[in-house]
Design brief:
four-stranded antiparallel β-sheet, alpha+beta, elongated, Outer Surface Protein A, domain 3, 182 residues
Length: 182
């Protein structure tokens, strides 16, 4: 039995669920999301909880059970609270700023790197070394944060680059320390 799939999804106050033929629309104070789910999954909506059930014990249905429950739970959480990913920039002369909706970063290249966020994703720069990615769709927020990090991932020798807040960068010894036998 899927341990994730059998958990009920609590529906926060102010969130409305509209389900028709496995096409779910979730409306809340932060916005609206919709998604077409797998037709085999059985979704039961009551006033304050959503239950996801599977028709058989086949391997595919077991896999879809937990996935469907997680997708619906993320939609409910997104329209009620939203999702945030925080990034930090490490390195001398590395910085970020907003120009309109576009994020412009100086990352040690001969040019500035410009990033236009997808629709439904909001970027904030509280200070030049910190970037905040916000939105109601967890997948879009995570993808935008990964794309920004991908412009200059943290390197293992000095740790310079863009990293998630709290991310541990595994450091390597440089060739001077290795050659000296330390």
């Amino acid at each position: 039995m899927s341990r994730v799939g059998k958990n009920p999804i609590p529906v926060a106050a102010g969130v409305t669920i509209d389900l028709k033929n496995n096409h779910i629309k979730v409306k809340g104070p932060k916005g609206e999301l919709e998604k077409t789910l797998h037709p085999d999954m059985i979704i039961e909506v009551s006033a304050d909880v959503i239950l996801v059930k599977r028709p058989t014990e086949s391997k595919q249905h077991k896999s879809l059970h937990g996935l469907t429950r997680t997708l619906v739970a993320n939609m409910v959480e997104g329209v009620s609270a939203g999702f945030i990913r925080n990034l930090e920039i490490e390195g001398v002369e590395y910085r970020a700023e907003l120009k309109g909706k576009a994020l412009v970063m100086a990352l040690g290249f001969s040019h500035q790197v410009r990033y236009e966020p997808a629709e439904g994703v909001e970027i904030e720069v509280p200070d030049p070394k910190k970037i905040t990615v916000k939105g109601i769709d967890k997948q879009k927020v995570g993808q935008a944060a990964a794309e920004i990090r991908g412009f200059r991932p943290p390197e293992p020798y000095k740790g310079k680059g863009i990293r998630y807040v709290g991310e541990q960068v595994r450091r390597k010894a440089g060739k001077a320390a290795v050659g000296a036998g330390f």
